[in-house]
Structures are given as structure tokens and as C-alpha cells.
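>> received
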Amino acid sequence: MRTVIQILLFIAAVALTYFIYQSIQRPIEFGKAKDARYEATVAKLKDIRKAQLAYKDIHGQFTGSWDTLIAFVAHDSVRNVKAIGELTDSMIEAKISEKKAIELGLIIRDTVRESVIDALFGGNYDANSLRYVPVPGEPTEFHLGQTIITTGSGIKVPVFEAKAHNNVILRGLDEQLVINLNDQRRTNDKYPGLRVGSLTETTNNAGNWE
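>> returned
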């Protein structure tokens, strides 16, 4: 009888140790996975911002259409100023301005057209990947939108927003810990996910991770 009790106590001790270990490891493992997914998602949101700013430079406003933005990145071009040479100490001593140096041919400033994908991403980039949240599972698009906000002084400001909810970014991870994280974000009046830009306020196109 005593042996049976000892065995049961041993099993209970092992089970308790396991549950204590799991209670400690659960949030640690969740935190590591969350950080990795957040890092990948932030990188993609920065790419979206880069593409939107280039689009606005040409069209004067942002776009809320993935098809439009992706076609712009994949097929459009931007103007870049190619710089050859710069003012030297001897030019400065001779009181030669940059404008004069360009007139004399000592400095060359040539405007050339370059594909958007080369100018922004170095060419080897899948433009269509911009639309998708970089997480495992079924491909899911970022929410994308644009509008114009009128400030208190009457100035109209074009804005855009791209975002993904934690339920998408962290899908497949510990469900209760995702719920806890979302509740914490809402309690602090913060979006429960990652977002760049805003459709309700002027944020200078900042991300909510910055």
C-alpha cells in the first residue's frame, strides 16, 4: 500500500513540476514567436510605406488599391538625379558655386528614369508580396486604405493606412495569450496589431511600433 502511495506522490510531483515548467515556458515561447512574426510584419509595412510615398510623389496622393500599388511598383518608373562629382576644396576656395560648377561641366547632375522596383527595392523583389501578411497559413492581405484629412487649420492632407490584426499575425500561436495581448492593447487604447499610417489622424506615416 505504501509503495502505491509513493508512486502516486511521485507521479503527482512530476506532473506538478511539468505544469510549473509549462506555465513558465508558455509565455517565453510565445514571446519569441511573436517577436519573430512582428519583425517580419514590420519589415513588410516599411516596404508598403516606401511604395506609397513613391506613389504619392508621382500622383499627388496615396492609393487604397493593392492592384494599383503593385502595378506601380512592378511596372512604373521614377526620376532620379544621377550625381557625378562634387565641390572640391579648390572650387570652394575659387568661390565656384555648385551651380557654376555644373555650368562649367566640373560636376554633372543628370536626371534619369529608373524602374520603381529597382529604385526602391534593388530589383530582385516580388511586388505582389507587398499585399500579404508574412505569416504561415492561408495568404491574408493587409488592410489598405487611403483618404484625405482636413486639419483644424483647413489644410487637406493625404493619408494612407496599412494594418494587420494580431489575430492574423499571431494565428496558430497560443490562443489565450493572443487574447490577453489584444485585451492589453485595447485597455491602453492601442490597435491590437501592427499598423503604418492612419486614416483618422496625421501621423507623418509613422508605424505604431515606432
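>> Residues 75-121 form one domain.
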